[in-house]
Specification:
Layout lengths: L1 H45 L5 E7 L2 E8 L16 E2 L6 H12 L25 H5 L16 E2 H9 L17 H14 L3 H10 L8 E2 L26 E2 L5 E3 L1 H12 L6 H8 L15 E5 L2 E11 L2 E8 L4 E7 L6 H13 L1
Parallel strand pairs: 4-6
Antiparallel strand pairs: 1-2, 1-11, 3-7, 5-7, 8-9, 9-10, 10-11
Helix pairs in contact: 1-9, 2-5
């Protein structure tokens, strides 16, 4: 009886010892991963190649969160996780998702011709389908940012109203142009009879708790509170004026994580709708993106959803790996064109 008890006690203690060793091993690995990632960013910061905020989350656990550098060119305030950054082209996900919300409610079809909603546009609008706008195959040219001294939304639309012909037949060629999401926004406003900013606030920001995400009316900002201001390597702030309020999305790394996480778990739109947005066009063109940026689909599922955005000296990159449940977010207000390198290194460190 005593020998049996001793044997049982030995087995229990052995299991406890193994458990402790496993926990210690896991803890040691987490510490090593953190230190390696921190060393990567610290070295780049010291070399003047990083000014921004980083957030890395795996399996809903924060692996790394840190900010480097200054909030503006005066170098008086250190960045922290509460500062918002302009997200550049990542904003294009929001009108695309809004279009799918309206489709799910039966308010539109992706094969609808845009002239149905914007009849004042020239005849070429009868050739363009909503899906052409989503996939950047509309044949529309790029926005001519330098044509107007202080470009605003009316300028963009007036240029479209005066456009005589398309660059190519819709559905035949890919061209990454801000005219596509801009017209999606106009369609959303016509259908909902709401200002796009109000629609997004009521149907995205509030219900999905993106409390630190907003849309600015213009740049340079009138309200700079908790805004990371863009500046170059000589600490000169960006001065190019933009007055198109529907595209100036600003957010924090935490809100960007929440947006990507909720999108990819089908809380905002259905899996079917998200897969439609993840589809890239099969036409000719360079660096072809879907409405969600870079998307990789395997076995009918989205394995990676990544999106890069820049505007002046703002540069952001979000990489969301569905298979490994890893999200890497880097948002900067001093562009160095090195964010893809950072995320590739981080992914290797975590998954090695």
């Amino acid at each position: 009886m005593i020998n049996h008890l001793h044997k049982s006690l030995f087995i229990i203690l052995a299991f406890l010892a193994i458990g402790c060793q496993q926990k210690k091993s896991e803890s040691t690995k987490k510490t090593e991963v953190y230190r390696t990632i921190d060393s990567l960013f610290q070295s780049q910061y010291k070399n003047g190649q990083l000014n921004g905020s980083i957030l890395i989350i795996k399996n809903n656990n924060t692996i790394y969160e840190k900010s480097y550098g200054y909030s503006d060119s005066t170098k008086t305030t250190q960045l922290n996780s509460s500062f918002r950054f302009n997200i550049g082209s990542i904003y294009k996900e929001f009108p695309a998702v809004a279009i799918m919300q309206l489709k799910e409610k039966g308010h539109l079809n992706l094969d609808d011709r845009i002239q149905k909603y914007l009849p004042e546009l020239p005849k070429w609008s009868n050739q363009i389908l909503i899906k052409h706008l989503l996939q950047y195959t509309s044949g529309l040219p790029r926005v001519n940012w330098m044509k107007h001294e202080n470009i605003n939304g009316n300028d963009v639309y007036t240029d479209l109203l005066n456009l005589e012909e398309l660059n190519s037949n819709p559905g035949e060629q890919y061209l990454y142009t801000n005219n596509s999401p801009y017209l999606l926004i106009k369609i959303i406003e016509r259908i909902t009879k709401m200002n796009f900013n109000s629609y997004v606030k009521q149907n995205v920001f509030i219900p999905y708790n993106l409390k630190d995400t907003s849309i600015k009316k213009s740049y340079p900002y009138n309200d700079r509170s908790l805004m990371a201001i863009p500046f170059d390597s000589n600490y000169q702030e960006d001065t190019f004026p933009i007055h198109i309020s529907s595209i100036l999305f600003c957010s924090t790394p935490k809100d960007m994580y929440s947006w990507f996480e909720q999108l990819n778990t089908f809380k905002i739109i259905s899996e079917e709708s998200l897969l439609i947005l993840a589809q890239k066009s099969n036409v000719s063109g360079n660096n072809i993106q879907s409405p969600l940026g870079y998307t990789d689909i395997k076995d009918g599922k989205i394995s990676e959803h990544s999106h890069h955005g820049s505007s002046g000296n703002y540069e952001s990159l979000v990489r969301h790996y569905n298979v490994s449940d890893l999200t890497i977010i880097i948002m900067t207000n001093q562009k160095h064109n090195n964010l893809h390198y950072f995320t590739e290194q981080v992914e290797k460190i975590i998954n090695r």
